[in-house]
TrEMBL record:
Protein name: Phosphotransferase system EIIC domain-containing protein
Transmembrane segments: 12-34, 46-71, 78-96, 102-123, 135-154, 174-193, 200-228, 260-278
Signal peptide range: none
Annotated organism of origin: Alkalibacterium pelagium
Topology versus the membrane: Multi-pass membrane protein
InterPro entries documented for this protein: PTS_EIIC
Compartments where found: Cell membrane
Record keywords: Cell membrane, Membrane, Sugar transport, Transmembrane, Transmembrane helix, Transport
Domain Phosphotransferase system EIIC: 15-309
A GO term for molecular function: protein-N(PI)-phosphohistidine-sugar phosphotransferase activity
Transmembrane helix as UniProt keyword: yes
Single GO BP term: phosphoenolpyruvate-dependent sugar phosphotransferase system
Amino acid sequence: MDTMEKETFKTFSNKVLTGTASGIVIGLIPDAILNGIFEALTPYRSIFSSLSAVVGTMQFLTAAMIGVLVANQFKLNAIQSVIVGAATFLGSGAYSVSEAGITLIGIGDLVNIMLTAGFAVYLTRKLNDRLGSMTLILLPIIVGVGAGTVGLLMLPYVSSATSMIGHILNSFTILQPLLMTILIAIAFSILIISPVSTVAIAIAIGISGLGAGAAAIGVTACTAVLVIGSKEVNQKGTTLAILLGAMKMMMPNLVRHPKLLIPVILNAILSSMSVYVFNIQGAPQTAGFGIAGLVGPIQALETGTGLLPVFITELSSVKAHGFNRGMRA
């Protein structure tokens, strides 16, 4: 790689966002689509238990996938891309280390994943071909271990910012129920297309009852806007991916077209009324999913109501307004 394309902060950030969005889809979609089905079928055939474990484990590789795909956006070669992927995983927070060994604990902090991947790419590009014949030996050490360590050092500070968001959201739960549902729905409708994990936030603050229902509705409201908007300008596969849970693939679009938040917020406000009227409830483990993998609807049905009828109503409402600008993936 003798020449490197010069990047501005904007183009560099957009490439990191695009690679991150693709990695999230690849890493999380199999579990979102199949895990609920496999778990339901497990009592009938033991093979479904193994299949559930496989798709569940795949999501732990999300950070590494993001790193590789971010590197691919910068046209790094195969060795460089894999090393960036390794550095991203090492700095992701997707694992914990104790005396008992290393334990996988989730996909990691998405904000930190993006920062680590970006730094690893920057370091790789700076080194370029300067390591010569020692590249195969030194690049994994300098970029893989080095950038991964920097990511780990940043993790507590980045995670504290996520925790701050959680505290703000938690403060909504003490408000009057209708106001609470509106604010939580708006917050989660925005978070689902940001680098912050709605699932991690929901579990961290232990949101439940109407609050969890409002969170799920907020995610669902955003999904409805993105599905209808994407349907007009993207291929069917892209729209289907969004419907199945890949809302975060629209992160780059949100950066380029912040006005996308207008229909998302308006739909979240309108949809949140249904939480209060129909007493839609949920649990911390389901609040951040919306309708992805039918996790939210199943939980809501167990408490006497559901999200799917509301989602269908939302689709009709959004379609009537024709929100589709800036939705091209």
